[in-house]
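Hey,
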Amino acid sequence: MLNNIKTKFSIKDLENFTGIKPHTIRIWEKRYNLLEPSRTETNIRYYDEHNFIKLLNINLLYNNGYKISKIAKFSEDTLLLKAKEVVAEKAMEEGAINSFKLAMLNFNVVLFNDAYNKLLANKSFREIFLEVFIPLLDHIGFLWQSKSIRPIHEHFISNLIMQKLYTNIERNQVSNFTENDKTFVLFLPMNEIHELGLLFLHYELTLRGYHSIYLGQNIAIEAIEDLKLLYNNIHFISYFTVEPSENTIDDYLEKIHDDLIKNTNNNFWFLGKRAADYDKEIPYPKIQAISSLKKVLEII
């Protein structure tokens, strides 16, 4: 049974989760009797967990070439079986994302791990993160903004993904880093807590044998100045999602330059939403806004 925080779904929720327009859902209901909405005491229509899961499986088959008229003829057991077959054959990522969404709504760690382990049998962790987790997180962000889920759902799934990141980072760190004149220092600015992207970059750096120092959230610039005394060629990297704000980012970059970069061989790269939206010319040659994780990986 789904957690009591979310057991009833509006037709707008179904659209947000599947991408199927309400008009299409209603046509499928009337023409093929695919779903059976209920109504509240005030006559507001909603869908229960059974209909929600059924539509996820219908959507999976529909997106993989099945005609809706054919899907409508399937029994409940056949529908589930066909969905599993499609996942096994060619839609593994989409099936896993469905499972992760259900795990999130259920706060179900076992379901999350089961879906993850099935992916891991065919994909590397890197592929899972880039091909499944990032699209999942993007969609979850939309679901949260559209109020189809609550912040606790997002926190739950993000923390499970973070656990997988830490496990894989630890595996990378069983041997010494490759001798290299570069040292990477990764940190988030004060009041910035969105660290999954930066943590994945730390994973990539350790996987490649680089000396990567991960400092985490809420790091003041003054707190890391002493690292300049230990290493001669530091690449400081940060991830700006919320902080610094649009109004303070230029001052922040100036302070980065003055305190960490000036008169050194050091560099500073920043990623995230603020980097993607930054359209000014940066007056410091060793400071760079990078629009995506993929581009950072190409550079390093």
